[in-house]
Amino acid sequence: MPPEPFEYAILRVVPRVERGEGVNVGVVVFCRTRSYLDARIDLGARHEAALAALAPDLDLEAVRAHLDAIGRMISGGGEPDGDGDAITRLADPERFRWVTAPSSTMIQPSEVHGGMTEDAARSLDDLFERLVR
Fold first, then answer.
1. Does residue 104 register a pLDDT over 90?
2. Cut 0.85: pTM above it
3. Per residue in 40-70, is it b (16+ CB within 10 Å) or e — as a string?
4. Could you give the CA distance from residue 35 to residue 37 in angstroms, rounded to a whole number?
5. ∠ at Cα 101 (96, 103), nearest 5°?
6. Cβ contacts of 102 within 8 Å, gap of 6 or more
7. Which of 49, 78, 106, 117 meets the CB 3.0–4.6 Å disulfide criterion with 123?
8. Which of 1, 7, 4 is closest to 124 using CA atoms?
9. What's phi and psi for 69, nearest 5 deg?
């Protein structure tokens, strides 16, 4: 298949918003032409250690819960009459825009970047390895 345009954003945990220091913990990729939206998020031991150095009193379980919620938002699958969160029922473009909207909270997306891809899933893996791991 020919390359197609895609967009991505990095997810960061910024424990002290006023200081602006953060740790990259995930990547979200959206490719409209391939109907692809997915994220890879990891709050591993190395990330936890970096966050503990920035904010020793940080509640890592609360951060993990928020990151899990973002993962559920991206994966979608909610039914209009079911128990799913309203955001999970939005179309892929709206979920991507919702998750990547600028935020001043502890979990922040980067600016949205663009590129070309032949395989959006492989691009997600490559970006995750390069920017998060």
1. no
2. yes
3. bbebeeebbebbeeebeebeeeebeeebeeb
4. 7
5. 140
6. 108, 109
7. 117
8. 7
9. -65, -40
